[in-house]
Design a protein that fits this description.
21 strands; globular; alpha/beta; single chain; seven-stranded antiparallel beta sheet; 478 residues
Length: 478
């Protein structure tokens, strides 16, 4: 779908007015380094990165079409020389990124762009659009799947998504976050993702009786028969009729898949349904549930002994209803020309908004069992020597220190574009999902708690900390 449209104009007007200002000030040769990162979020210490695939498609096709230039001309903001400059506009820089599925933490660059300043500036809005939304949904899906404790989770949110793109790419992100399938057929077609779904209440209501509806469905789909049993009365009508049809299926040589519950007290109904299905000789029949589920509801239902084995999660997943924005930002961290960069730092009265300067990398430190210990944001030229003890410290409460003597290190940012050419092959979505699972498995459960998760250590290297303190001193003492 990305390949069918040009999104160069997917930007805020102020990006173009800044580009025009750079152009008029003779800054076309200036180079900029920008970091895309997110700040801390309530009750979610980590994020699962997604959206890089969209970033790649966007940058490959970055060019102003004649219709775009005609529209910009109609705004009466830009002169013809600038519009002529835009007609040859392409991305010629480098981009490093955390691969999709990587577990990331606040303040870490998810993407690092180094390019001519005008190019790096223009792409800000689009990159944030792709990464903010898809990372948000992948993270929400990860939390939902963690609460499900290994049960199958299906993404059912298309009809409640905030537009087609949110439904399509949100479903893809949900798969990255751990969901097994989606109801979204277009997403399945575009990305090779398994699709799932059976029938709605309207199917049952369209037949003279519930039993007629179940029999008709079982006749058409004998090998994948899963019946929605709560249209009229779950325990008095739906389940007894489903069991009748399941027995008829078995007599024909087929085994039913199970039932779905979409309303009522899911804990009570699932426990009673399990008893009825077992007594009828269908202990392997699945019990699926939907109805405004999220990680909190799933956690509570499991605590109450619900016998649900498959969870269909829609609205609250596809919209990340309790926390509907990632809050990612894109900040200038260095600027220069001729290959020489000068670090840049943004100050603020709010300490959380003071940026980290320079051309940086992110290094994850692991113990010998492969569990993550901490992350280190470092200057790109700094070397992390695994053969020597490494002391890390909290960048705010600097007295909090620990020395690592037996660890391994992995750089999280990988090259995606070099010299304007894509040098990265995006994995299959299911491979990304498997990678995301391995990432989550390397994190202690304390970091994955729904409420008040333990804060994962994200420290600054000695070199970056010293640079940041120097720039703060220079700016505040002048």
């Amino acid at each position: 779908m990305d390949n069918n449209r040009n999104l160069t104009m997917l930007t805020d007007l102020y990006q173009l007015t800044m580009l025009y200002g750079y152009y008029k000030n003779g800054m076309t040769a200036s180079e900029g380094v920008f970091d895309l990162f997110f700040r801390p979020r309530a009750n979610s210490g980590y994020a699962v990165v997604a959206g890089l695939n969209s970033v790649i498609s966007y940058l490959k096709d970055l060019r102003f079409l004649e219709a775009d230039l005609a529209y910009l001309r109609s705004l009466n903001l830009f002169d013809e020389d600038f519009l002529s400059y835009l007609s040859d506009f392409r991305f010629t820089g480098e981009l490093y990124a955390m691969p999709e599925g990587t577990v990331a933490f606040p303040y870490e660059p998810l993407i690092r762009v180094r390019a001519p300043l005008m190019q790096a500036q223009l792409i800000e809005t689009a990159l944030l659009t792709f990464v903010n939304h898809q990372t948000l949904i992948a993270t929400k899906a990860s939390r939902v799947c963690y609460a499900a404790q290994g049960d199958s989770v299906l993404e059912f949110g298309l009809r409640r998504a905030q537009g087609p793109d949110a439904g399509i790419y949100g479903a893809r992100a949900a798969i990255i976050g751990g969901c097994d399938a989606t109801s979204n057929v277009l997403t399945g077609e575009l990305f090779g993702i398994r699709v799932a779904g059976t029938h709605a209440h309207s199917w049952v209501m369209s037949f003279p009786t519930e039993l007629d509806a179940f029999r008709a469905y079982a006749e058409i789909f004998p090998q994948s028969c899963l019946l929605l049993v709560d249209t009229y009365d779950t325990l008095r009508s739906g389940l007894p009729n489903a069991i009748i049809v399941f027995n008829e299926l078995r007599a024909r040589g087929f085994e039913p898949v199970g039932i779905r519950l979409d309303s009522g007290d899911l804990a009570y109904l699932s426990k009673r349904a399990r008893e009825m299905l077992d007594e009828a000789g269908f202990p392997n029949a699945r019990i699926s549930a939907s109805s405004d589920l999220d990680e909190t509801v799933i956690r509570d239902l499991k605590m109450q002994g619900a016998k649900i084995t498959t969870w269909g999660v829609g609205t609250r997943l596809i919209t990340s209803a309790d926390d509907p924005a990632l809050g990612g930002v894109y900040k200038l961290s260095a600027q220069g020309a001729g290959g020489v960069l000068e670090p840049k730092l943004k100050l603020s009265d709010n300490p959380a908004k003071v940026t980290n300067p320079g051309y940086k990398k992110v290094v994850r430190l692991y113990d010998r069992a492969g569990m993550a210990i901490a992350d280190l944001i470092a200057l790109a030229e700094e070397i992390i020597d695994e053969s020597k003890p490494l002391t890390i410290f909290d960048p705010v409460q600097t007295y909090k220190r620990m020395t690592l003597t037996d660890f391994t290190a992995r750089e999280l940012l990988v090259p995606v574009f070099a010299g304007g050419e894509c040098v990265y092959n995006s994995p299959d979505v299911l491979d990304i999902r498997a990678y995301a699972k391995s990432e989550m498995d390397s994190m202690w459960d304390e970091y994955k708690r729904q409420l008040n998760p333990h804060v994962y250590k994200v420290d600054l290297s000695d070199g970056l900390f010293a640079l940041k303190q120097r720039l703060i001193h220079e700016h505040t003492s002048s």
